[in-house]
Specification:
The chain is an all-alpha fold. The protein has a single domain, classed as Methane Monooxygenase Hydroxylase, Chain G, domain 1 (Up-down Bundle), CATH 1.20.58. Helices cover 76% and strands 2% of the residues. It contains five helices and two strands, in the order ααααββα. It has a two-stranded antiparallel sheet with strand order 1-2. α1 packs antiparallel against α2. The longest helix is centred in the last third of the chain and has 46 residues. It is elongated, with a radius of gyration of 27 Å.
Length: 169
């Protein structure tokens, strides 16, 4: 029983650590969004590198968390690798209700981080579409105003080159 209590305490501590790391990850994503909006690519690069490190750390913590759950509670009646960390808690008899608040806090931290990630992806997709359309508009305007001459000295619009460029964008 003493070992089980130690594992329960360790698991609670891991949950708090996971909450903190997910909140940190959300803050990093918020910073990335600001860096994209303000076109601060050096800051964006630094934040992305930090995000990769944070995601690696979170993955390791989740793996350790699942291992601790299995050690503390033995057979849960489910395969731990098939469930997220918050989905495993209700399967932990005797403490499921005790950990409800921590589980809910962890769910909120994860959902908030996922929402920010979704927002960042939408922002980047918008930027990509906007840049592509702007480039197409620039090439279309250039086609209307530029004149090219062929080898015989006759005027040609040069439209073929721009059409090929527009297709690649």
């Amino acid at each position: 029983m003493a070992q089980n209590e130690i594992n329960k305490s360790a698991i609670q501590s891991m949950m708090v650590t996971l909450i903190d790391h997910f909140q940190d990850a959300g803050d990093l994503i918020s910073g990335q969004i600001k860096a994209v909006v303000y076109q601060d690519f050096d800051e964006l690069t630094a934040l992305i590198e930090q995000q990769v490190d944070k995601n690696t750390m979170i993955a390791e913590l989740e793996k350790d968390f699942k291992r601790e759950i299995v050690e503390a509670f033995g057979t849960l009646g489910v395969e731990p690798s098939a469930y997220s960390v918050t989905e495993l808690i209700p399967h932990c008899k005797d403490v499921a209700e005790e950990w409800t608040e921590l589980r809910d806090d962890l769910k909120i931290a994860i959902e908030t981080t996922q929402q920010k990630q979704h927002h960042l992806v939408q922002l980047l997709e918008f930027a990509q579409e906007h840049i592509a359309q702007t480039l197409k508009d620039i090439f279309a305007a250039a086609n209307q105003h530029s004149m090219h001459y062929n080898q015989t000295g006759e005027k040609s619009s040069g439209e073929g080159n721009s059409r090929m460029i527009n297709r690649t964008i």
